[in-house]
Each structure stands twice: as C-alpha cells, then as structure tokens.
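Late entry, evening session. Most of the bench is empty. Finally got around to the prediction I had been postponing all week. Sequence below, unchanged from the version circulated by S.P.
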Amino acid sequence: MKIEILGVEIDDLEGKKILSLIKERTEEGKKTFIATPNPEMLILALKDKGFKDILNGADIKIPDGYGLKIGAKILGKKLNARLTGTDLMGELCGFSAERGLGVYLLGGWQNTARMAAENLKNKYSGLKICGAESGGKMPARQSPDGSSRMAGGEDWDNRVIIEHINAVKPEILFVALGHGRQEKWIYENFEKLPSVKLAMGVGGAFDFFAGRIRRAPKLLRSVGLEWLWRLILEPRRYGRILNAVLVFPYLCWREKLKIQRKIR
C-alpha cells in the first residue's frame, strides 16, 4: 500500500513486509534503491524537484519519522507503518550475515564508519564488512570529473570511491552523507556498481551504531518523542528539529487547505 504526502510517495509497509520484499528482490537479482523519507526530507523535496523525483523513483520508500504519521493524519490519510532507517539498517545487517552478503559503509564523519563497522560485526555474527570509509568531505558541488577539493585539504574523489567499492564487490551499500546528498549520490552512481544489489541512504545511523550518539529509549521512540531526546543531546540541531515538528505540520495543513479549495 502506498500513500502520498506533499508529493512524495511512501510505502505503507511494516518492517517484516519490507524485509520480505527486499529478500525477494535480492534473490531475483534486482537492484534495489531504498529511500527513508522523513519530515525534513519532504520539506527539502518541496524546494528541490530533482530530489523529489529521486525519492519517488526509489524502489522502496520506508516511512521514517513519526512526523509522517501526523502529516498523513492532517491530510486526512492514514499511515499505519513506521520503520526508521537505523532499524532497517540493523535488520539488513542481520540478513546479510545470514546470507553471507558483503556490506560496505560509505560516509559519516572521520572514522565513524569504521567504528560502526566494528560494532556491527560484534552484534551480527558472521557479518562480512567489505569496506567502511568516510570517502572524504563531500562538497556542495563537484567538478565534472567527480573530484573536489575542500577547505582543510580533504578530498572527495568519486572515481576512487567507485573503484574501491567495485574492487571489494559488496552486495549491500549503506550511504551516510546527510539527506539529499546521499540519495542523489546513490541515484547518480548505482549503475556504476555492478556487485551492489541494494543501496540505502541512512543519514545519521552510523553515529548510532558507532556509539557516538545514544538512541532514545524505546518508550520515547514509540510515542514519537525521539526528536526531544535528540534536542537534549544535540541542542545545535534545534533548527532541523523545528522543521520536523513545526514547519512540516504547517506545510501539511497548507496542502490540505489547497486541496479543499480545489474541491470547492
């Protein structure tokens, strides 16, 4: 079942059904691009049509963020499911360990990907990590050849990254470059990675698995207050949190009013 929120299609599927669909596609050899729409991403999609098209073009769009349930309700729709990108990444690592599939972690800050990889290997016995690299600091814009120089001398060389991924041949790729950039990177490079059957943007999931940031207690997550926990731990995120808890509901109300005016 699918529903649309602010022009972005969401798969209203529970975790088990999504995992079943992923396993089915993997066994059939189909390449699968998973996006994790949340309120912030939908706000960005309103401003960036290219990004909206990428989200809608993803093979699976999981409902990440309790705010989507609220947005759907405002619009007179019902979103039953909710599955965070962090939870799905964990499930996919378990699936990979069972099937002997190789996993590659790309992105994150400094050595976060490597720290996350070590913790994931400890948690999921037999998990095969093919690589865990930050890739360097990604610029706002890249040069035509895919390489860019950042302040401080850090480089993001797309050709080297692609060559390394192809050399170690992972089947599953997790990309943590921040929402928007990570989805665009997957869209632009997925076909250059023949061994990769599943690619997914995971935002800040590496931070959780690396132990840099503690996840909210399950009780807070279950009632949609994970944002409050993040605000307490990371006050600098207040702008992003305001977008999710205030701006997004307002935009949904505005969309509802537009629809009602058209009907009249």
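Two things to note before I forget:
The two ends are 28 Å apart (CA to CA).
The first strand starts at residue 2 and ends at 5.
Will write this up properly tomorrow.
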